[in-house]
Amino acid sequence: MGLGLKFYKHEDGTIFGNFFADPKFEGYSGIIHGGIVATLLDSAMTHCLLMKDIPALTGRLSIKYSIPIRTGTVVKLEARIVDQIHEMFILEGKALVDGKRVASAEAKYRSMKRRVNQGAKK
Q1: CATH number of this structure's domain 8-121, picked from the four choices 3.40.640.10, 3.10.129.10, 3.40.470.10, 3.40.50.300
Q2: Which end of the chain is more exposed for a tag (fewer CB within 10 A), N or C?
Q3: What is the pTM of this model?
Q4: What is the tens place of the pLDDT at every residue in 20-35?
């Protein structure tokens, strides 16, 4: 049952994509489950890294829910890299409905490139 997400890149490196809030993803009646919202934001931020050929794992994810997302709406997802400290990347993501922010996220991701190489040496 995938989420059917496709992401695209702006020239500035920010990524964006849309998600249709299907009722099959609701928690309370008519409202998308918060765990789905967190997954959408994490997916957007992960794709932001993947579009720069940076495979990474989520280390910390913090979500701020502002407005419940109603089923039947289209959610615009956006993400961007804010900072990089060695192998750690800090990203921001947001979810919008009709131009209004409904949720936002901050996350830290650890690059997998070095870990894969280290694992091969054992």
Answers
A1: 3.10.129.10
A2: C
A3: 0.89
A4: 999 999 999 999 999 9
